Amino acid sequence: MSDGLAQRLQALEDRAAIADLIARYGPAADAGDAEAVAALWTPDGTYRFDDTVLDADALATLVTIPTHQEYLRRGCAHVISAPRIDLDGDTAVAVTHSVVLVRDGETWVAERVSANRWELVRTAAGWRVHHRRNRLLDGAAAARELLA
Questions:
Q1: What is the pTM of this model?
Q2: In this structure, are residues 115 and 84 in contact, taking their beta carbons and an 8 Å threshold?
Q3: In the predicted model, is pLDDT for residue 27 greater than 90?
């Protein structure tokens, strides 16, 4: 196999692995599976949303916070768009939209609509999230900057 072909194949495999990793977040969050959510991150990873920053130890508690527990009680779906992925060797940045839908009677309401920036690294166990930033798309420039 030529070097060029091997590089293109590796890039396709990396993109597929990253897309799969990001796609695992919603089902894990909706199942309330703290272990599966935390396993997506590196041991020194962080997740920043609103005014909250969770480090690696706190990531496992994400699904136990009162807001998330209320979402689970009512019925929820964390839906993440297909990622735009920029690869750079053993690091990557992915940008997505996310919507948290919550059941309200017989309908579903978009409770959170956000911009996301996922900073990822290749580890011995495969691709993992090193940092994720999530900002509500509320008209503020900070959220739009995550999408740029």
A1: 0.94
A2: no
A3: yes
